[in-house]
Amino acid sequence: MTPATLVPTDFSAHETKDERRNEMTALPAEPEARNRTIGVLYAAGGAALFSLKGVVIKLAFAEGIGVSQLLTLRMAFSLPVYLIIGFIAFARMKTRPSWKTYAAAGGLGLMSYYFSSWLNFEGLRYVSAQLERLILYIYPTMVALMSWVVFKDRITKQHVLALVLAYAGVAILFGAEIGHQGENAWLGGGLIFAGAFIYAIYVTASKPVIARMGSMLFTAFGMSVASVAFLTQSGIEMIAHAPPPVTANGYWLALTLAIFCTVIPSFMIATAIARIGPGPMSAVGGVGPVVAAWAAVVILNEPFGWPHFISMALTIAGVWLLAKPRLTRTAGARTW
Q1: pLDDT over 70 (residue 219)
Q2: Which of 27, 50, 269, 312 has the most CB atoms lying inside 10 A of its own CB?
Q3: pLDDT score of 12 more than 50
Q4: Is 38 part of any domain?
C-alpha cells in the first residue's frame, strides 16, 4: 500500500493570506476542472491496481510463500525501480529539500510500505481478498477526520454524500462476507484495520512533505528507505533460518506484486493526492473493493451475488458524485 503528493486543498473555513493569493492566481475554470479530472483518474487507477494486491498475495500463499518471504521478494524487485526514478527526480529538482524533509519522507515510507504492508499481509492469512479490501478502504473516513483536525480542511455535503454512498456499498459487501469467515476474521480484520489506520496517517501526513519534494522524489525516497530497512531485517533472518525454495510461478507472482501492485500505483496515488488532496483521493479509492471483488470472483472463484452487485453500484455512484466538478464564482476556485 503506499505513496502520495500534495497541493493544499482549500477546505479551510477561514480564508488565509495564502488562500487569497491562490484565488488571485487560480487557473481558469476549464483547466482547473481538467486537472481535477486527471487527479480522479489517477486515484481510481491507483486504487484499482492496489486492490489487486490481495488476490496476488493469495495466489502467492498458495505457492507456499510465507509473509516475510513474499515481502522480501516484493521489495527486492521494486527497490531498483524506486532508486532509478528517485535519482532522475532528484537530478531535475532546482531546489533541494532539507534533511528534515528527507527524514519525514523516510519515516512515512516506513509507516506505509513497511509496517502497514506487514499488517496487511498477515491479515490476509485469515480473511478473503474481498474482505481485506473492504476493511482496508475504511481508511478514507480516518483520512477525512485527520485532514479536518490537522489541516482544517472543510468537508462539504457533497464530499460526505460521496463517502456515504461509497461506504454503504462497502458495508453491504462486508455484511455478506463476515458471516462466512469464522473467528479468524476478527484476527485478520483487526490486523488489516491497524494497517489501514497507519496508512491513513501516511496519506494525511504526506501532504505537506510532497509539496516540498514533489510526488516522484517523495514516493521513490520513502519506498526506498522502507525497502532497505526490511531487506536488512530479512537478510538477518535468512542467516538464522534459511527460507524454503520459491517456485518459478512464485517469482512471477512476486514480480507482479512489486511492479503492477506496488510501484505503478504508488506513483499514481501520490500524483492524485497532489492534484485533488487526500480526502477526495480516499473517496475515489472506494473503487478498490469493487475491483478486488471482481478479481476475487474471476481468479479465486469467490462467490458473487446481489450484495456484491449492490455494493458495486453504490460505490460507483459515490465516485461519480465526487468526480463531478463543482466550481465557485471565483474562476478556478474549487470546493469538495
Answers
A1: yes
A2: 269
A3: no
A4: no
